[in-house]
Amino acid sequence: MKTIKDVARLAGVSPATVSRFLNSSDMVNAQTRQRIQSAIEELDYRPNASARALVTKSTQTIGVVISELADPFFAKMAHSIEQTAKKLNRKVLISTGSLNADKEFKAVQSLVAQRCDAIVVNSKAMSDEVLVDLAKNIPGFVLINKYIEAIRHRCVWFDNVKGGQLMAEHALQRGHRDIVVVTTSEKVHDASRRLKGIRSALSHAGVRLPMSQVLHVSPDYAGGQQAIKLLQQQGAAFSMLLCYNDAMAAGAIAELLDAGYKIPQDVSIIGFDDVLLAQYCVPKLTTIKYPIEVMAAKATELALQLSQNQQMQGEGYCYSPFLVNRESVYTR
């Protein structure tokens, strides 16, 4: 196994100079850096991350807390963070919170204990007070998919209210009035904000949305199937479904097709997120674009900047939704 002394010998420098190079020191001139880099490549030398961490107090690692890896949305988010980190020569350590406040908090603490330089947190359950306290004690803390005024410069978030409004407005423009909302049974802030946007747009158009037309099911494919079964049991009349995410929309489509409905002629459906599934289900799903890849990349860069004590000001980073019009909405 090659050591730092082998690299130094081949490059014609001292081990201390190689060490400074590995720690990104500006004290190493360009010509020497090139010799060291060539020696590293020739010897296929791999620095010991644990040993470097003891010296530099840094593991060159970005910690990430997400709800669950199985969800396509969070998989996209994690992939974007990993790709951004790779470009910045950082590693990524991922932990899941499982939509539980205590598990989310312990996930953050675990990442801190493992000396992650920066931490990107997607919290669905922790209170604003707890998140603010974490931000005060973790220099590289960034909150993604949520806005908190007290730590706004650490937030990368999405306008979920506007997303809900776009769904409802598109349904209304296509002539739909018998609208059912299929949302998650989990108590998460993005669901309530999307519903707020839907209600706002419908109210503005003079269309009521009674609670009986808002179904709360699991936020996945099976939840979409369950929603259709519930509507059939109730004998409800509906021509449009507005779904909390694309997986629920795909499940609803499958159940409706099995029951003999034509999509979108009998029932139109709008999803949310625009994950890969939306492009390949039949019919292709009209949905709201959630630019999570771009947001995750920005959150990663921001977390690293904050971890290096760069002063960040401003109102954070808010991203806007837009409708992706495909084949699942029919004009009545």
Automatic annotation (TrEMBL):
<dbReference type="InterPro" id="IPR010982">
    <property type="entry name" value="Lambda_DNA-bd_dom_sf"/>
</dbReference>
<keyword id="KW-0805">Transcription regulation</keyword>
<protein>
    <submittedName>
        <fullName>LacI family DNA-binding transcriptional regulator</fullName>
    </submittedName>
</protein>
<keyword id="KW-0804">Transcription</keyword>
<dbReference type="GO" id="GO:0003700">
    <property type="term" value="F:DNA-binding transcription factor activity"/>
</dbReference>
<dbReference type="GO" id="GO:0000976">
    <property type="term" value="F:transcription cis-regulatory region binding"/>
</dbReference>
<dbReference type="Pfam" id="PF00356">
    <property type="entry name" value="LacI"/>
</dbReference>
<keyword id="KW-0238">DNA-binding</keyword>
<dbReference type="Pfam" id="PF00532">
    <property type="entry name" value="Peripla_BP_1"/>
</dbReference>
<dbReference type="InterPro" id="IPR000843">
    <property type="entry name" value="HTH_LacI"/>
</dbReference>
<feature type="domain" description="HTH lacI-type">
    <location>
        <begin position="2"/>
        <end position="56"/>
    </location>
</feature>
<dbReference type="InterPro" id="IPR028082">
    <property type="entry name" value="Peripla_BP_I"/>
</dbReference>
<dbReference type="InterPro" id="IPR001761">
    <property type="entry name" value="Peripla_BP/Lac1_sug-bd_dom"/>
</dbReference>
